[in-house]
Specification:
Length: about 900
């Protein structure tokens, strides 16, 4: 029968209302449609049955307070379903449709049968599954010829109902086929839309993925969840967000497992080394997809997660953050932008997990990885305070009873987690913050926790090794900074004891032997230190600091040629300066250690072959410096996760380009701006480059020191001191560990510290050149090198100390004393300057002043300064205290005979 135009319009509008589940409009549309189309009675009654079922389901959900938020806890074995309805609530509508079923066209009858199947499945009738099978038995799903509009949604409904019925009967494989057919239909017909279609498509895709997980087919489940996500992009923004969060949780896990299946061989700094190009491409795509899934997971979960009440724990947020953190560990931390994005993710989680120790633990490690050490310290303090409360409220046996899932739900930290944070905190205080008190407190707390709670833990030896090691480092740092001579021996003894304890626990760890050797070297126990560092090299022959320490130890025994040979061996063993063809390079910190060894090699070359031959090796150091302090690939390279292309709410894109490591600009009152009390103008051009002879290292720092030095006719020229340079002190602002980062990001503590290290390293190179020129008698060239050192690092007291030595070499004792005083203004405890100052007082006949300065020096940080003890002995000799003089002179001789070519402490890093 051909429909009139009026009936066609009504049918179109009626079907649109059905596609939107607009139940209020159903009765009127049904009345009008039957009025203009007598054969439409089946369609009209089918719609009225849909209305009755839909309204009954809504009423049942309200009565039981059920929402799709129940799906947040879904597992493959237990999938939350809507409450079933009573059969009598829809019995009348079912009977009406069954009575008129034979009166309509065959097409209407088939779609009405699907509606009847849906109605039967929604009830709690005992024979509901049999009724579903009965209604669908004569219907071919999917049909050979696909309909459009709402009828297409009914086909998806029929397939979904058939699959759900088979699922309840235990016919899982057949149910999955039905669900997959829905997925294929919707993907092949992207123009078909509608809320009812979205609803049935979501049911099918969701259940397909979960059932595949139940069957153990992870790859197939991941494909279904990917299809779910692809379809979800077309759904309304707030449509079934709880289920989306669950899908993203399992999809994230599936992608992580896919990555593990790539078969990587090794890792460098947490980034996998992939076997072939195809795997590398797959890895890149996985990283980007993972970042997108994390973003959608976060948005959907937060949309259905309120701020917790006093007795609640948003454990689902904690589980999500833990999964994201673990995924980042697996895929690699990425560049600075990626690290900052992870920190911001954890900060956002803190808004939904008030006072969560687990979230603070994640935040602490993420901030350390990002290099924001000041904020990491705040997170550490907050975490340890919460962990202490955590211990007070739980029973002694709780740690043994709770599973990992229970810990996440209760937000209770294990003793192992607390201990690892304490150990990491000790490392942070020692390595990055230079706070031995905080480092010692964390290390001792870790040791107490291990002895009290983790004696039976499988990694107890490793934990104790780390805790004892950092305890020893903390004691060593305290001794190094001690101003009370009576405390120093006890601190050194404790440091040695802790390091020896660490070695006993893990004797095959080279770093323990290295730290013990360094500690013994600082105590001037040279023979034992040599034995310890050789043991470190036996365990790790590529450890550059161990070779460096061995060279310094040999130089302390005045075996300079052997020390020079050891430097060559150590540099050969290092792989930092090798060409890398695999796309990876060694870290910048390894490069700094390499530069430090090259610097010692240059000083030894000077000692063995003379200052003239030392100029060429020193020139090469500037080129090496430029390579080492170039921007790190992990800082300025491409994002591992392509985070700029990830949809992210409230996340600003920040330019994380690091500032140049060296800032050279003239400052008022510095060596650069004034060189003579007599008004002599500077021969430095305004742009900071020498206008005559000496080139300043610029971005490539490949200056020629030997070829561009001016003639030696400046040998006897008198130089005069400039005013002191003011050292700038920039203190970063601190904020709460749980507050959101500001919109404008400041440089990380790590980047600031790197810039300072770069400036200090370049200043050291210039001062080394200045020392060489001074000993060659080329005073003007020496001054130019000092000027460049001051340009780079104005707050470095060694700049003014070298300037004082320069004037002292010209017998200008007055101006030399002024320079030493300016060095002491920057560092009141500079041992070399204090020794020179004491010598000046001694030569001037001011014995009391000399004794006061030298006594203070030898009792505090200059306890190992041979010059200070020597001049103090001379002071006692001049004042007829011969016994004291003899003690001081003998001690000075002992220190001199064990003094290395460069200071152990300044040349080597502890960690």
């Amino acid at each position: 029968m051909t429909l009139t135009s009026k009936a066609q319009v009504i049918e179109r509008d009626f079907q649109n209302a059905r596609s939107k589940a607009n139940y209020a409009a159903y009765p009127e549309f049904a009345r009008r449609y039957v009025k203009h189309n007598k054969d439409g009675i089946v369609l009209a009654n089918a719609a009225l049955l849909e209305m009755a079922v839909g309204e009954a389901e809504i009423a049942a959900r309200k009565a039981q307070h059920w929402t799709f938020a129940a799906s947040l806890d879904d597992t493959p074995e237990a999938i939350a379903t809507s409450p079933l309805i009573q059969p009598e609530t829809i019995q009348e509508a079912v009977e009406k449709l069954e009575r008129v079923l034979a009166k309509g066209p065959e097409e209407h009858q088939e779609y009405a049968a699907i509606v009847l199947a849906r109605a039967a499945f929604a009830t709690n009738s005992p024979d509901r599954l049999q009724k579903v099978a009965h209604y669908l038995q004569n219907i071919h799903l999917p049909p050979a010829r696909l309909p459009t509009g709402y009828n297409f949604a009914l086909v998806a409904c029929g397939l979904t109902m058939k699959g759900m019925a088979m699922e309840e009967e235990g016919r899982i494989a057949e149910a999955i086929v039905c669900y997959d057919n829905v997925s294929l239909l919707t993907q092949a017909n992207p123009n078909e839309k509608g809320e009812e279609l979205f609803s049935w498509t979501e049911h099918a895709l969701y259940r397909a993925g979960m059932l595949k997980l139940r069957e153990g087919d992870q790859l197939a489940a991941t494909r279904s969840f990917r299809a779910y996500h692809s379809q979800a992009l077309q759904w309304p923004a707030n449509f079934r967000l709880a289920r989306r969060a669950t899908v993203y949780r399992y999809l994230s896990q599936g992608l992580a497992m896919s990555f593990k299946s790539l078969g990587f061989e090794d890792t460098i700094d947490g980034t996998p080394v992939i076997v072939d190009d195809q795997s590398q491409t797959h890895l890149s795509a996985l990283r980007q997809e993972m970042a997108q899934i994390h973003a959608y997971w976060e948005d959907s979960l937060y949309a259905v997660t309120p701020f917790p009440k006093a007795t609640e724990k948003n454990w689902r947020v904690l589980a999500m953050i833990e999964q994201i953190v673990e995924d980042r560990k697996l895929l690699g931390s990425g560049n600075d932008a990626d690290k900052r994005a992870l920190v911001e993710t954890i900060y956002r989680a803190s808004q939904k997990t008030f006072q969560s120790p687990r979230n603070l633990r994640f935040l602490f490690f993420a901030l350390v990885d990002m290099g924001q050490f000041d904020e990491a310290e705040l997170a550490l303090k907050s975490y340890l305070d919460m962990a202490e409360l955590n211990l007070k409220v739980k029973s002694a046996t709780a740690d043994e009873i709770l599973t990992h899932e229970q810990r996440v739900r209760l937000d209770v930290e294990s003793e192992y987690d607390i201990t690892t944070v304490m150990i990491a905190g000790s490392y942070l205080y020692s390595k990055e913050l230079g706070n031995p008190t905080g480092a010692l407190k964390c290390a001792k707390s870790a040791l107490d926790h291990i002895h009290q709670y983790l004696q039976q833990h499988e990694q107890v030896s490793l934990l104790l090794n780390e805790a004892y090691k950092y305890e020893g480092v903390a004691y060593s740092m305290q001794a190094l900074n001690a101003h009370e001579p009576e405390k120093r021996p006890d601190l050194y003894a404790k440091a040695v004891e802790s390091l020896e304890n660490a070695i006993k626990l893990v004797p095959d760890a080279f770093d323990g032997h290295y730290l013990l050797a360094l500690q013994l070297a600082e105590m001037r126990d040279i023979p034992k230190a040599i034995l310890a560092v050789k043991q470190s090299l036996n365990l790790n022959a590529s450890h550059v600091p161990s070779w460096h320490l061995l060279a310094l130890l040999l130089s302390s025994q005045k075996e300079y040629e052997r020390a020079l040979s050891i430097c060559a061996v150590g540099l050969k063993e290092s792989d930092w300066d090798l060409a890398h063809t695999d796309g990876y390079t060694a870290s910048q910190l390894d490069g700094e250690e390499y530069l430090a060894l090259r610097l010692t090699q240059a000083v030894l070359h000077d000692q063995v072959h003379g200052p003239e031959s030392a100029l060429e090796p020193q020139e090469a150091l500037f080129g090496l410096y430029a390579r080492i302090f170039a921007p790190e690939p992990c800082s300025s390279g491409e994002s591992l996760y392509d985070i700029q292309n990830v949809r992210r709410r409230d996340q600003s894109e920040v330019d994380l380009t690091l500032p140049p490591p060296v800032v050279g600009r003239p400052r008022a009152g510095s060596i650069l701006s004034t060189r003579s009390r007599n008004g002599t103008g500077s021969d430095i051009a305004p742009n900071g480059i020498y206008s005559n002879t000496l080139d300043v290292p610029k971005p490539n720092y490949a200056s020629s020191i030997t070829s561009s030095i001016g003639s030696g006719n400046s040998k006897n020229r008198r130089l005069h001191p400039p005013p002191a340079a003011a050292a700038a002190n920039h203190t970063p602002l601190l904020r709460s560990a749980l507050s959101l980062p500001p919109a404008v990001q400041r440089p990380t503590t790590k980047s600031v510290m790197r810039t300072k290290r770069a400036n200090k390293a370049l200043a050291t190179l210039w001062l080394l050149s200045a020392s060489t020129f001074r000993r060659l008698g080329r005073m003007e060239d020496a001054l130019k090198a000092i000027v460049e050192a001051e340009r780079v690092d104005a707050s470095n007291p060694d700049v003014w100390y070298q300037l004082g030595l320069l004037y002292g070499a010209q017998d200008d004792k007055e101006t030399a004393l002024v320079s030493f005083s300016k060095a002491l203004a920057l560092d009141p405890y500079h041992p070399a300057c204090l020794a020179r100052l004491g010598r000046s007082y001694l030569e001037a006949g001011s014995l009391e002043m000399a004794e006061g300065v030298l006594e203070t020096t030898t009792r505090s940080l200059g306890w190992d300064s041979a010059e200070a003890w020597f001049y103090l002995g001379k002071v006692f000799e001049a004042s007829d205290r011969l016994a004291r003089a003899k003690e001081c002179l003998w001690y000075a001789l002992d220190l001199e005979t064990s003094r290395p070519i460069r200071s152990f402490t300044e040349s080597l890093s502890r960690l």
